[in-house]
Write a structure and sequence with these properties.
With about 260 residues, the protein is an alpha/beta fold. The chain contains 9 helices and 10 strands. It folds into 2 domains: about 5-145 and about 245-260, Nucleotidyltransferase, domain 5 (2-Layer Sandwich); about 155-240, Nucleotidyltransferase, domain 5.
């Protein structure tokens, strides 16, 4: 069997279904030349350097497949999260071949078998259907929860916190506790009013950290005003760092939620 045929066979069987034998066959039983060829071809979707984030603590390996636009795959190993570069947007009517390529490449390159697969809470996304067809337990993560979890993971916060997320309809505030969250309300006022609302929520819950994020177009000026207001009132506002895109933050947050879910 030549390398190209072996690669196509590996690409097909790794995920249909996702089994321990499929990956271990490629990693351990192939000749060095064959393994190198398979790695090279599977990694064609990862030509850009991936980001690595140190997690608050180690846990079982999980994978997250992101959402709809600016998709990204995140795989954890120990206390590190490896986040792929941006994958082209995934139309809901097409097969997730690019997503599959990158997921395969990350798992094989890291030598891990995810125990959980995290995906967006929208059941119609291509990434969601892809995750649910892998034969591995899945975790649905709301995007607001995912953004807050990503910020918590980046800042090493391993305790409950508040999350204020700006979206097209105003802002929502959550109380996030690891793999769970509680919605505390929605607000449609300006930055100053949102800040006062967040301070009230902090006083009511006794929480000090607050994750600030936004979906869609980021309003940098509003975020800066909010952060300044919250800091002036004794809170610790946290935002995404490490230069991650919104899509990468979503997959990182999904993975961190899934890791904590797998520990329960």
């Amino acid at each position: 069997m030549n390398d190209e045929k072996e690669f196509r066979t590996a690409e097909r069987t790794i995920w249909t279904p996702f089994t321990r034998l499929d990956i271990l066959t490629i990693l351990a039983e192939g000749s060095p030349d064959r393994t190198a060829a398979v790695r090279h071809k599977l990694n064609r979707g990862l030509r850009m350097f991936r980001s690595v984030v140190r997690l608050p603590h180690a846990g079982p390996s999980v994978m997250a497949v992101g959402a709809f636009s600016e998709a990204s795959v995140c795989v954890t190993r120990g206390d590190e999260a490896f986040i792929s570069a941006r994958i082209d947007d995934l139309p809901t009517t097409e097969s997730p071949s690019a997503l599959q390529d990158v997921a395969n490449a990350l798992c094989i390159d890291l030598g891990v078998l995810p125990l959980r697969i995290a995906h967006d809470s929208n059941p119609d996304f291509t990434s969601t259907r892809f995750a649910r067809n892998l034969g591995v337990p899945t975790v649905a993560v709301h995007p607001h929860h995912a953004l807050a979890a990503a910020i918590a993971a980046e800042h090493g916060v391993d305790s409950p916190l508040l999350a204020l997320t700006l979206d097209a309809e105003g802002a929502v505030i959550l109380r996030v506790d690891g793999p769970t969250f509680e919605g505390l309300g929605r607000h449609e006022e300006g930055a100053a009013a949102l800040g006062a609302w967040a301070v009230q929520a902090a006083e009511a819950t006794g929480l000090h950290h607050i994750a600030l994020s936004a979906t869609g177009v980021f309003d940098t000026a509003s975020m800066s005003l909010l952060a300044d207001y919250l800091s002036a009132h004794g809170l610790s506002p946290l935002t995404c760092r490490n230069g991650l895109t919104e899509g990468q933050c979503l997959s990182l947050g999904q993975a961190w939620v899934a890791l904590q879910t797998a520990e329960l």
